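Journal club prep — side note

Before the paper discussion, L.F. wants everyone to see what a predicted structure for a comparable chain looks like in token form. Sequence:
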Amino acid sequence: AKVDFYDAYNFFVLNTLRAQTLTTVDLNLFVGNNYVVSVHKGDMTEVNQVRERLIQNDNIWAEGHLYITYLLFDKVVDQYFPALHQIEDKLNRINIHTGMNTGQSVIKKVFSLREELLKLRRVTGSMKELLYRMINSEHLQSFHTNKHYFNNIYDHLIRLSEAIESNREMT
């Protein structure tokens, strides 16, 4: 995840996450004074969900382009939770089914889960750094009017990071 500052717009790269495979797909956003343009490969669930919400509720447009940017960021981060829950479920199944068994297959499963947690930590960490920069950057003064929305997403990322670390300690 990253942000680049330009005179007329800001360019964001968000890391969307596919929970089943833990692969990332970039969502590029150009955010200007009165517009948001997304660029991405193929169909993207997060963008489709925001688009549907905009179509169903005309009042959202009145909130402005930064609110729509918030909605996109929020949908991206919301997709991190199912990935974490899947990993936690796998970890719980190992704990339940293995008991005191320390066989090679259990060790392989644990290391595989650790690897998945590390992937998730990298994705959430880069998004957390991006949100921190957005909230505190002098270059993004226009975002400060909607700072509370972006703080909410940042709080979600902190909770995700803490849960990831807790699960890593269990492995």
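L.F.'s comment for the group: The longest helix spans residues 104-136. Keep this in mind when we get to the figures.
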